[in-house]
Write a structure and sequence with these properties.
CATH topology: Tetracycline Repressor, domain 2
Number of strands: 0
Order of helices and strands: HHHHHHHHHH
Radius of gyration: 19 Å
Largest sheet: none
Structural class: mainly alpha
Helix content: over 70%
CATH superfamily: Tetracycline Repressor, domain 2
Distance between the termini: 30 Å
CATH class: Mainly Alpha
Strand content: under 5%
Length: 212
């Protein structure tokens, strides 16, 4: 199963190739993620990020031109990991049933965001400023394609439906409500969101009920 991966909108100054360089970049990204999550984007300076990563500020600027560049790469990393997680969860399903696939699709996206809520809040707050429309289109299209490919074996349950269009609506609902709940309603994110998303997704596909 293949999908197109999103690319960051702000590119690094230098692409790491040697193992040591890759480790340096990873350390910088982890430090940025830690400080963005703990202190917020505005308060996390590149000096403090470099210090936490154990590198000089000059080394940081070899790979990242500014904090926006760091944020763009953290958004890319989240998208890559989420797409991979969704693909693995769907591939691991023993049977291709529509409701079960929808539940796994929603659950795997939810899990990807739940790993680090404080960081996700920062990424979401700056998403519209950092990422361009074609970035959203790539990620959305990749998620839709993953679920659509998995549902090919369930075509008899979805006869008469414009499946691609319905899955577009499903993906929009899932991502939008996850983003809103992270920003504004943590209780909803942790307690009720997945069941509500499953019900709405089932309705989009013309299914009578979500789950017994």
């Amino acid at each position: 199963m293949s999908f197109s991966r999103p690319q960051p909108e702000i590119r690094s100054r230098r692409t790491p190739r040697q193992h040591r360089s890759v480790m340096t970049v990873d350390a910088i990204l982890e430090a940025a993620a830690t400080l963005f999550a703990r202190d917020g984007f505005e308060r996390a300076s590149t000096t403090r990020i470099a210090e936490l990563a154990g590198v000089s500020v000059g080394s940081l600027y070899e790979y990242f031109s500014n904090k926006d560049s760091l944020l763009a790469y953290l958004i890319k990393r989240h998208c890559d990991q989420m797409l991979e997680h969704v693909a693995q969860r769907l591939q691991a399903m023993p049977e291709r049933q529509v409701m079960a696939a929808l539940a796994v699709f929603i659950d795997s996206i939810h899990e990807s965001y739940a790993i680090n809520i404080p960081l996700q809040r920062v990424l979401i707050e700056h998403l519209g400023r950092i990422s361009k429309p074609h970035h959203f289109e790539r990620v959305s299209g990749a998620l839709i394609s993953l679920l659509e490919e998995h549902l090919h074996g369930c075509a008899e349950e979805l006869s008469g439906a414009n499946v691609r269009r319905a899955l577009y609506v499903v993906e929009c609902i899932v991502e939008s409500l996850i983003h809103r709940s992270i920003l504004f309603d943590a209780h909803f994110f942790h307690c009720e969101l997945k069941e509500q998303l499953l019900t709405m997704s089932a309705n989009c596909l013309g299914l009578a009920t979500a789950r017994n």
